[in-house]
Write a structure and sequence with these properties.
Radius of gyration of chain B: 22 Å
Helix content of chain B: 40-55%
Order of helices and strands of chain B: EEEEEHEEHHHHEHH
Oligomer: heterodimer
CATH topology of the largest domain in chain A: Butyryl-CoA Dehydrogenase, subunit A, domain 3
Structural class of chain B: alpha+beta
Number of helices of chain A: 6
Distance between the termini of chain B: 27 Å
Distance between the termini of chain A: 29 Å
CATH architecture of the largest domain in chain A: Up-down Bundle
Structural class of chain A: alpha+beta
Shape of chain B: elongated
Largest sheet of chain A: 3 strands, antiparallel
Chain lengths: 199, 222
């Protein structure tokens, strides 16, 4: 017979099995995966990915995302420039989708992860009233949607490849894809145990 | 709250909500029903006595539609007599041709390799469980599945196609190809599958299927 505090039970991030937290070197009893082995530095891995993602987000906004070559004349547009352009042409729904996917989603995700990582160490204000599990779940669900812009540029570049008009992907596409990749990694590396006892 | 257990194995009767991390004790529910989290309302688990057959059917039809989606053209445009069309793979090659090797590779994984792998793994797991064989293999496959599942973005790609089509709407004449419709079906099957068959349920199912083979070998590094 053994008795456990329910606070001591953690879910395996890989197979969702309930495990008893042994403080260090946790290993799932069902699938054998290591459960956040980096306990001595619980937030550093996530910070590293997050900072890399934020660094990549800068060139993603400065360099052109898409280059349109029409009858020999090249027009470059950055992410924001493209959105403004779409808005002026009256394509409001598309402008909104791109705005949400490539501006709001990454920035909100950066801010939420920064908040979660900072408050894991030192609680900010009335921490207890914020449902951090919900915030983390939100970042997980919403994160991949920022890939929309990269996919769209890829489709347009592959499709519009004609003698009169040509669309070419810009440098920002690489930077943006890298930024999305590292934010996803940062969210995966985040140890949900850091926000336990939040409620 | 203190919980009394006979052994660690009994923890299988408990489940932690994926969204709000509330601990729940699993209760028996009617066939075809689902259990919701008492705190946030998220689906915890389903009960489906024929989950293996349903899973096999879904995995097989998903795979068929995925193959169809990759064999036909996706979109065709007609601009002043110039025609061009793309398929899912040709889009990746076009990115690589323009020197975007990294993005091309990343996109190739997100919309081709990972979705294909996920459905092949589902097919393999359910067939192995149906035959009650491959106890170790199903375990490795389930672990692999949970690692690649967050990286599969067919649904996001579908939305991107719509955005691209609307962007081109005034510029050229656009024809949606066969692939586009089959991709929609594939994404619907995929969404239905991830919503009705949770990974945790597959682990529970695996335990039930191979129960007669005795105790599981523990991991050396644990």
């Amino acid at each position: 017979m053994l008795t456990v505090e329910s606070e001591k039970l953690i879910a395996c991030p890989v197979c969702e099995a309930v495990n008893i937290d042994k403080e260090r070197n946790n290993c799932c009893r069902r699938c054998g995966s290591k459960i956040y082995h980096h306990r001595n530095s619980p937030v550093e891995k996530s910070w590293a990915y997050l900072i890399t993602a934020m660094v990549f987000y800068v060139p993603a906004n400065i360099y052109p995302m898409m280059i349109i070559r029409q009858f020999g004349v090249e027009t470059e547009s950055t992410i924001l420039g493209g959105i403004i352009h779409l808005w002026e042409y009256g394509d409001y729904p598309i402008a909104l989708i791109i705005l949400v996917a490539s501006v709001f989603v990454p920035i909100v995700k950066f801010l939420l992860l920064i908040y979660l990582l900072v408050s894991a160490r030192s609680p900010i204000g009335n921490d207890k009233r914020v449902d951090k599990h919900k915030l983390y779940f939100f970042t997980e669900v919403v994160g991949p949607w920022s890939m929309v812009d990269v996919f769209v540029v890829g489709i347009l570049a592959a499709l519009v490849h004609l003698s009169s008009v040509e669309i070419i992907a810009g440098t920002a596409a690489t930077a943006f894809a890298a930024s999305v990749f590292f934010t996803l990694m940062a969210a995966h590396a985040f140890d949900t145990k850091l926000i336990r006892g939040n409620r | 709250m203190k919980i009394g257990l006979k052994n660690e194995e009994e923890l299988d009767n408990y489940i932690i909500c994926h969204k709000c991390h509330t601990l729940h004790r699993e209760v028996p529910i009617a066939d075809g029903a689902k259990a919701l989290c008492s705190y946030c309302g998220m689906v915890l688990y389903h009960r489906d006595s024929r989950i293996i057959d349903h899973g096999l059917a879904l995995a097989l039809s998903g795979l068929i539609f995925f193959i169809l989606a990759n064999t036909f053209p996706l979109i065709k445009i007609d601009l002043l007599g110039n025609e061009s069309f793309i398929s899912i793979t040709s889009m990746v090659f076009s990115l690589a041709d323009n020197g975007y090797y990294l993005v091309g590779l990343f996109v190739l994984y997100l919309i081709f390799i990972f979705p294909l792998m996920i459905f092949l793994i589902y097919l393999l797991i359910f067939s192995l469980m149906k035959m009650k064989r491959g106890r170790v293999l199903t375990k490795e496959l389930l672990i692999l599945l949970s690692h690649i599942q967050p990286w599969h973005m067919s649904d996001i790609f579908l939305v991107s196609i719509l955005v691209a089509v609307v962007k081109l709407f005034g510029m050229a004449e656009i024809h949606l190809g066969v692939s586009f419709w089959t991709l929609i079906v594939f994404v619907l099957i995929d969404i239905y599958m991830t919503r009705t068959i949770h990974l945790g349920e597959l682990w529970v199912l695996r335990k039930k299927v191979y129960q007669s083979e005795g105790k599981e070998v523990q991991h050396a590094h644990c």
